[in-house]
């Protein structure tokens, strides 16, 4: 009997060590996994977090977009070439929206009279109006 007991004890010890090793491996894999989408952004990058389109009005589309950016010191979330981007924070604070170059290539930027946004106009008369809230 004493020999069988030693074999069982050795087998139990090996089993526990293997289980501990698997647990440590699992913890290491979980801690080194890349962040899931929406958690962390690289410095200077942006992502759109919400997009809502209202096409209920004829000849008019209303789009609401929310973005988040990981901007450097002195920058804020803004718009450049019709996409979310990190821009100079002074442009946002002074509401000089056209300084961000928010319109697409070939469009002209014009501040709204109340300075709560801007318009992007194309040659053929298409106008996009963007308001900031």
Distance between the termini: 81 Å
| Share of residues in helices | 25-40%
* Beta-strand content: 25-35%
C-alpha Rg, in Å?
Answer: 28 Å
Note the main sheet: 3 strands, antiparallel
Side by side, the strands of the main sheet go: 5-6-7
Number of separate strands: 7
Estimated structural class: alpha+beta
Mean pLDDT: 81
Shape: elongated
Note the run of SSEs as H and E.
HEEEEHEEE
The helix count comes to 2
Uncertain regions: pLDDT < 50 for 5+ in a row? Answer: none
How do you describe this structure in short?
26% of the residues lie in helices and 34% in strands. By secondary structure, it is α+β, with helices and mostly antiparallel strands.
SSE blueprint:
Layout: H1 2-31, E1 45-54, E2 62-70, E3 75-80, E4 83-88, H2 89-93, E5 108-111, E6 117-121, E7 127-131
Antiparallel strand pairs: 1-2, 3-4, 5-6, 6-7
Written description of the protein model:
By secondary structure, the chain is α+β, with helices and mostly antiparallel strands. It is built from two helices and seven strands, in the order H-E-E-E-E-H-E-E-E. The protein has helices at 2-31, 89-93, and strands at 45-54, 62-70, 75-80, 83-88, 108-111, 117-121, 127-131. The protein has a three-stranded antiparallel sheet with strand order 5-6-7, with no helix packed on it. Strand 1 and strand 2 form a beta hairpin. The longest helix has 30 residues, at 2-31. The model has no long low-confidence stretch (mean pLDDT 81).
């Amino acid at each position: 009997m004493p020999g069988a007991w030693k074999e069982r004890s050795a087998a139990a010890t090996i089993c526990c060590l293997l289980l501990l090793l698997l647990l440590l491996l699992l913890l290491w894999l979980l801690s080194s996994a890349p962040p899931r989408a929406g958690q962390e952004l690289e410095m200077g990058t942006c992502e759109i977090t919400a997009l809502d389109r209202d096409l209920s009005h004829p000849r008019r589309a209303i789009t609401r977009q929310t973005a988040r950016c990981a901007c450097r010191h002195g920058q804020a979330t803004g718009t450049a070439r019709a996409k979310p981007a990190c821009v100079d924070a002074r442009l946002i604070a002074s509401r000089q929206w056209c300084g961000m170059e928010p319109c697409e290539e070939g469009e002209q930027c014009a501040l709204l009279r109340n300075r709560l946004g801007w318009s992007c106009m194309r040659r053929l008369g298409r106008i996009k109006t963007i308001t900031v809230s």
